[in-house]
Amino acid sequence: MKFKAQIMDEQAIQRASTRIAHEIIEKNKGIEDIVLVGIKTRGIPFAKRLSDKIEAIEKAKVNAGSLDITLYRDDLSKIDDNPVINSTDIQVDINNKVIVLVDDVLFTGRTVRAAMDAIMDIGRPRSIQLAVLIDRGHRELPIRADFVGKNVPTSKEEVICVHFEEIDNINDVTINER
């Protein structure tokens, strides 16, 4: 892949995370009954960051967990005959809760659809909301994010790469070309 540009640095990610945390609190009139659920892989550190920001603002912990959607992917047979299944870790009852799915990039919407299927197999939430750091467009399904860090119009040949310290030892978002 060929590097094109850095579209967010560490400070921009921090500002977007703070804004999204405030928007989640405002939209839900507090944090009661909210469960943040990070979609593996980079949705998990992003959900943790949002959880930390919300706790700093509200002075109370928000429930959080992680979700592995591997078995819910509609392209699983194209990816691998022996997929690696990671664990889903949601320690609270999600029935009648507001689930905020958290992911790094929203593209076609297929990952979010798989995540919603996985959540519905676990329980029946009151509602499901979506928070993403980057919305790059090109939706194939009628899915939109409730909370967006940055909208980045892209071509289909471009690739958005989100890097988080917890996984990549750097915090930034870049746009690359295949």
Brief overview, please?
By secondary structure, this protein is of the alpha/beta class. 31% of the residues lie in helices and 30% in strands.
Give an account of the 3D structure.
The protein has 178 residues and is an alpha/beta fold. Helix content is 31%, strand content 30%. It contains 5 helices and 8 strands; from the N terminus they run E-H-E-H-E-H-E-H-E-E-E-H-E. Helix 1 (10-27) packs across helix 2. The N and C termini lie close together (5 Å). The model has no long low-confidence stretch (mean pLDDT 94).
Strand and helix layout:
Layout: E1 2-8, H1 10-27, E2 34-39, H2 43-58, E3 63-67, H3 76-79, E4 98-106, H4 110-122, E5 127-135, E6 147-151, E7 158-163, H5 165-168, E8 172-177
Parallel strand pairs: 2-3, 2-4, 4-5, 5-6
Antiparallel strand pairs: 1-8, 7-8
Helix pairs in contact: 1-2
Defining key terms:
alpha/beta, three-stranded antiparallel β-sheet, 8 strands, single chain, globular, five-stranded parallel β-sheet, 178 residues
